[in-house]
């Protein structure tokens, strides 16, 4: 009985293949155009670094392309829906299918099935490829397109507070007890926030507690004198847990890794609403590919000869783009604490599913 929801096998394959081809074509067009425009602004910065050449330009393209694919795949499904259904309507194929006894939901069933397949592929693609490309690209951008650090989780320009004092480093690399800071500056400040002494070193490692600065030199503000300290331990209040918490980047982490980061932050008493919303959105985001055929379905129904086909296509596009606007706004509200994380990630999806279903039913009536 479940298979009765779909039209005949031949018609299901025909509609599914037509829809899939258009998704791929629209996505390829969008990614190629947007990647070319993006590289126009970035190629100069990449080639300005001594030693960089064509290989680095292509490396940037390979890291940026997965991000564009992940971002514009739902838009591609929406545009492919409108193109497919408008074409079927224009050629009276929708009328033929309805005359054969098919409902609007049965006509859309193959498109919804392809949307579900696209959502599954999108989720796996985001988890396995996009997160890694994002992590590598951010590290590369932090070093201004110079040589990519071997530690892809390295961070640039980090700082930590130890009471009134501040520990700063140009780069942060390594994990656990092997964590290393380079180009380190430690500022001792009085109760008024004024710097009393500045200690600098090329390198600092975790000393449990504190951070051991090697070949350090100190500048005393009051006497304006510099003193060689050798090896010195500073910032005993800056723990490894505090270092690890600064690494959390939801766009560069998969579901499992982000779950561990959220638990660590909650254990440290940190606010995790924004990260929890991003966690849920890693699931609801790819599922928007299932929603797009429903929102764009208005373009496929109604008489083409009435002259309203273009207006219906515009309405379908407006509904689809309105979903993305509301989705981004809900995530922003979740980040500020205005919405609970679960509501921020899922409310737009279910809201527009009801809107799309309502429009489809009213159109069919």
UniProtKB/TrEMBL annotation:
Broad class of the protein's primary localization: membrane
An annotated GO BP: transmembrane transport
One CC-aspect GO term: ATP-binding cassette (ABC) transporter complex
Pfam families noted in UniProt: LptF_LptG
InterPro entries: LptG, LptG/LptF_permease
Transmembrane segments: 12-37, 68-87, 107-125, 309-326, 338-356
Cellular compartments annotated: Cell membrane
Recorded topology in the membrane: Multi-pass membrane protein
Keyword annotations from UniProtKB, A to Z: Cell membrane, Membrane, Transmembrane, Transmembrane helix
NCBIfam families: LptG_lptG
Name of protein: LPS export ABC transporter permease LptG
Species per Swiss-Prot/TrEMBL record: Aurantiacibacter zhengii
Protein encoded by which gene: lptG
